[in-house]
Amino acid sequence: MKRLWLLPALAILAVVSGAQSARGAYCGAISYQGCSSCGGSVVADGEVVEGGEAAGAVEGAVAPAPSADGSYTVMRNVTETVYDQVEETRYRTRYERYYEDQEVQATRVVPYTEQREVQYTVMVPTYETKTRTINYTVNKPVYETHEKVINYTVKKPVYETKTRTINYTVMKPVYETHEKVINYTVKKPVYETKTRTINYTVMKPVHETRTRTINYTVMKPVYETKTRTINYTVYNTVKEDKVRTENYTVMVPEQYTKTITVKGGHWETVTEEVPGGTMRRTVREPGTWTYDPATCRCVYCPGKCRVECVQCPPKQVCKKVWVPTCEEKEITCTRYRKECRTREIPYTVCKRVPECRTKTCEYTVCKMVPECRTKTCNYTVCKMVPECRTKTCEYKVCTWVCEPRTKVCKYTTCKMVPECRTKTCNYTVCKYVCEPRTKVCKYTTCKMVPECRTKTCEYKVCKMVPECRTKTVCVNKCRTECYTKTIKVAKCRKVCEPYTVTKCVPRTVCKQVPVTVCCPAPACCGATDACGCGSADACCEPACGGKSRGGLLKRLFGGCKKSCCDVAPACGCEVAAPSCGC
């Protein structure tokens, strides 16, 4: 009853132990994992035994002998994937551009020169000489000399020197010094030093280097050289000599004599007396002396002022007078007469003759092929980490304290004291005495007397007479000409072209790898009765410490079966000393 709870555990162990792929020798104490049916082999006595079972499980096979340290070498099957390179032919379709020649009807403009006669009208001037009589009036100056007597009065100044005494008062300054005591208050600054602590935050930069991979595309130019034929037209210049007749006019000089009236004259200098102008001036009458009883002295009273006109003396004036004269003179004149003439002028006419030419041009076509590239960029990231800091500041506080003071001021007072003084002055008195005078003035009077005169004038009258003329004019014209030209027409066609691709084909290969397996020493299986081990069947179980498939059940239900080594230790069957044939 105490061991009933072990039944589920035994069932689980039986399922686990039955899942082994192969069972080894020593009554199932050794098992081989991973030995499938793909040609597994076991090394037994230097020979490879084929099959999935160990040598102890094959009929007639002999179990492999363990090494001195109780380990075996077995061949384990390992599966490995191998890639074979196989060439495969594929087909792709591409579009190919080709050119075909095609004849096209085109139109071009060909210039040519054509001569034609043009009639035009020229206005030819015709001159005609005419005569007319002109009556005109000339004002002729007539001069007369006159005399007149002018009576005028002249004021003649008479000067007299006099003396007088003047009493006057002068204010004389007198200075006096005084003293005064002034009380005042002064504010005196008192300074006091104080300390305070300021907390502030500083942003400290922390730099961090990072790396990123940038994929970018570069357009790589691929150049291709092509050839094309260009038809073009060249205009050759052909010169042709011609002669044209031109009518022209020549002005021929012609001399003739005529009589003309020339107005002449000369300048004469004339001296005449011009009366002087009138001048206004202010004249003061003589003053009087009056006794003043208040000041006990005589006071001078000036006379009244009056304005009078004074005639200035005459003056001599020189002037130039033009005296006209008339003279008749015979002169030689030149006039121009028109004369028509003819001349021949050679000229050259240039013609443009078209010539068709062909040239082959090579041109390069550039195609931009995208190419992917990768670059690694290192960049730095800056983070501002706040850091708290503290500093101590000292500052001064100023307090104003009142302090009384006293000072003595000196000041000066000025008083003006009157002082009487006397001075003697000399002065001049001017008196004007009237004096009559007389003068004779000569003056000239000019009168303009009209005089009638007659003169004959010749003048020319110009008339424009129309005249028809003819000239040859070259006119440039253009005509349209049709011609056939060959052009290249681009077309596309589909082309299927083969190309070879190398691809990797996976293949599974199973190969055997030698593996060394460590196992415990088996019991004395097959020992003879001479060792006292009993029958051979009883000795086929491993020792108590062996890992067999039924060892755990026997320990749970029947205890550990004693081996032959425990029964007859005199035999010397030990694990470390397999001298008994273990």
UniProtKB/TrEMBL annotation:
Record flagged with keyword Signal: yes
Which terms are listed as keywords in the entry? Signal
Under the heading InterPro entries, the entry gives: YTV
Q: Which domain of life is it from?
A: Bacteria
Span of the secretion signal?
1-21
* Protein name per UniProt: Uncharacterized protein
Source organism per entry reads: Roseiconus lacunae
